[in-house]
Amino acid sequence: MNPSTALARTLVDEFARCGLTDACLAPGSRSAPLALALAGERRISLRVRLDERSASFLALGMAKVSGRPAAVTSTSGTAAANLHPAVIEAHQSRVPLIVLTADRPPELRDTGANQTIDQLKLYGSAVRWFCEVGAPDAHPGAAAGWRSVAARAWAEAAGLLGGPPGPVHLNVALREPLVPTDEPPFTASPGARRKGEITSVEGRPDGMPWTRVKAPAGDPPLGEVERLAAAVARTERGLVIVGDGITAPGPLVELAEVAGWPLLAEPQSGARRGGAAISTAALLLRDGGFRAAHTPDLAVVAGKVGLSRSVLGLLASGVPQVRIDAYGGWLDPVRSTGRLLVGEPGRLAAAVAARLSPRGASTWLASWQEAERVARAALDSLLDAGEEPSEPRTARDLAATIPDGSLLLAGSSMPVRDLDLAMRPRSGVRIIGNRGASGIDGLVSTAVGAALAHPGPAFALLGDLSLLHDQNGLLVCGDLVDLVLLVVNNDGGGIFSLLPQARLPAHFERLFGTPHGVDLAAVAATAACGHRRVRCAPDLPAGIQAARRDGGIQLVEVRTDRAVNAALHERMGTAVSTALAGR
Ligand SMILES: Cc1ncc(C[n+]2csc(CCOP(=O)(O)OP(=O)(O)O)c2C)c(N)n1
Ligand SMILES: [Mg+2]
Question: What is the pLDDT of residues 381-390, one digit of tens each?
Answer without folding.
Answer: 999 999 999 9
